[in-house]
Amino acid sequence: MRPQGKHEMSDTTSSTRPAGASAPASSTPHAPVGANAAIAADAGIAAAIEAPPSLRWRWLRKHPTLILGIVLLLLIAALSLAAPWIATHNPTAINPLQRLKPASSEHWFGTDALGRDVFSRAVWGGRVSLIVAISVAVLSTVLGVALGLTAGFVRWADSIIMRIMDGLMAIPDILLAIALMAVIQASLSTVILAITIPQVPRVVRLVRSLALTLREQLFVEAAHAIGTRLPVILVRHVLPNIVTPLIVQATFIAATAVLTEAVLSFLGVGVPAQVPSWGNMMAEGRNFVAVAFTVILYPGMLLALTVLAINLMGDGLRDALDPRLANQL
Amino acid sequence: MAYVIRRILATVPVMAVVAVIVFLLIHLSPGDPAALIAGDLATAEDIQRLHVALGLDQPLWQQFFLWAGKLFRGDLGTSLFTQVPVTSLLAQRVEPTLSIAVLTMGLSIAVAIPMGVLAAYKAGTWIDRVVMVFAVLAFSVPVFLVGYLLIYGFAVQLHWLPVQGYTRLSSGLWPWLRSLILPCVNLALVYIALITRMTRATVLEVLHEDYIRTARAKGLGVMPVLGHALRNAAIPIATTVGVGIALLIGGVVVTETVFAIPGIGRLVIDSVQHHDYPVIQSVLLLSAGTYVLINLLIDLSYRLFDPRIRY
Fold it and tell me: Is A72 on the interface with B (CB under 8 A)?
């Protein structure tokens, strides 16, 4: 399933770029590392694509962390997508007679302080985390690419954008997200926004540094010389060359987003309390740690497993697509 | 020297941008900031009074310069909830937070650097793999979950350490340290993971260099060789420590909540619940200032690590 997706991604990469693009770039003696690395990675993927199916599978087998991450993530995604069928109880149904009960055949993960079924809530809660992970990763990447490319290619905008990004980066992520949640109405979309904003500068920095090296590459200069307009150059020649590091970074941002959502909910400034998110379940359970540790243990373990899966996938993708990124990301 | 001055001056625009962001924060909210501050039960009169008190009736740029001018004179404003000057509020809360931050950083560096060097030296062996698995795990488990696990294990079950709370340094070194062991170990885990990974990656790279091979070839022992390597790996490691400061400050908020420690992190959360904007703004400024200052010091210290660097 996954290799198919990567296949498509890299396919567009190689087809949109002019055929000779990578050759002059890699033969330039002083070719900057970032662009070179991206191009080298492309070549690696291209080799994998052109190889017969059996070789493609061998390539995948060489990256066990990637496979483990993807399998775990697919399991968690399937579990939360199938929540209406898997959940044994109504996740919001209160039962005062069954408060803080340990795990049993009736309540697989026990019950919480209001007698709600922890297993059903945990299954539903996965949806919130996955929505947050995907939205934050996509949103911060889109914003970061737009700002980063502008900074990299439009000289007068560069210092303005980068000073603002420096300022944003100086404020610790979680504090900035907390402060944003203090001024906006709590809802799932505002939480996503509050987690996204602190992540944008990271993407901008990465994109800008890649753009600065790509700007000097022959194929970009050539496109300039024949009068190609800047937006066309960016979309057709620059974007395909930064896709690899962007995907890796987006994966790590997704992992951070899941953790931050849980932290915000846990601190009482996240998604509204009636939403059964893993963070909210733990926030409610924290007053009963000594009595019923399970109330925070199960959602916490599921959350950790999700973040672990995304991190493994990120590490695996990085090693598989471009080992040289290891020092940057 | 010119570099030092330039580097110090470079912090000015960053802090200026931080100040603008922090100032604009309460104006970002849709609707009237005064109404937001006053809460749901406020009358129109209350809101009007707040308008004047906060200077919201003036144009935005005027408000900003008035506010920034006060900042320069060390006036962070007055807490809307407790009616106490924010500076004295922060002064009361700074000791626990500073204690956690310093101890956590010391503990992390003391554990992470040897661990990272060991993993690099034994790259590819089971030791390396154990260290890396730990690093990935520490990145994935929420800080507060580990915190409650520590409380449950060491305080509730074993009774070795206090469950929650903070004992001031003035009531003795040991009681103070005892109240900080669990929070610091908790917070350090993420930080250790970060620094270990970076140390391993840089040392691994340095170990491939020619001078290391020469040192080994002439029969130098393991420890002196690693010493050589570490010195050349120092700058990326120091940079990681600096970048991680933001992570540390963010983590303090969570740890202080888990361990019920009345520090600055706890103050922020309480202030959010009370819509106490002057306090939130001040803490943002303070933590951004700390981050910028520490990174300035780290940048300036590069020469100590590497005399080849000339400014």
Answer: no
Listed residue (B185, B286, B282) closest to B245, CA to CA:
B286
Q: What DSSP state is assigned to residue A96? A: G
Measuring CA to CA, which residue among A228, A250, A226, A248 is closest to residue A238? A228
The reply to whether residue B251 touches residue A181, judged by beta carbons under 8 angstroms, is no
Six-digit token string for A306: 């999700």
CA dist list (Å): A128 to A134, A135, A174: 10, 11, 19
**What is the ipTM for the molecules in this complex?**
0.86
Burial class (CB in 10 A: 0-12, 13-18, 19+), A225: exposed
Phi-psi region of A301 (alpha: psi -120 to 50; beta: other; left: phi over 0): alpha
Q: Is the pTM above the cut of 0.90?
A: no
The pLDDT of residue A97: 67
Residue A83 near residue A65 (C-beta atoms within 8 A): no
Residues 48-87 (B) with a CB less than 8 A from some CB of A? none
Cα A102–A103–A106 angle (5° rounding)?
Answer: 115
B217-234, pLDDT tens digit by residue?
Answer: 888 878 888 887 888 888
> Up-side HSE of residue B108: CA atoms within 13 Å toward CB?
33
Q: How far is CA B242 from CA A36, A62, B191, B192, B237, in A?
A: 28, 35, 11, 13, 9
The percent helix, strand, coil of chain A (3-state, each to 5) is 75, 0, 20
pLDDT at B30: 62
A293 vs B101 pLDDT, higher one: B101
Percent of chain A exceeding pLDDT 90 equals: 21
A18 touches chain B (CB under 8 A): no
pLDDT digits (tens, 9 = 90+) for B229-280: 888 888 888 888 888 888 888 889 989 988 888 888 888 988 888 878 888 8
Alpha carbon of B142: minimum distance to chain A alpha carbons (Å):
6
Q: What angle in degrees, to the nearest 10, is found between the helix axes of A33-50 and A188-215? A: 100
Instruction: Tell me the average pLDDT across B154-159.
Output: 80
Residues of A in contact with B21 (CB under 8 A): 167-168, 171
Task: Encode pLDDT of A142-179 as tens digits.
Answer: 999 999 999 988 888 898 999 999 999 999 889 999 98
CA torsion through residues B283, B288, B292, B295, sign: positive
CA nearest B200: which of B105, B140, B131, B278?
Answer: B131
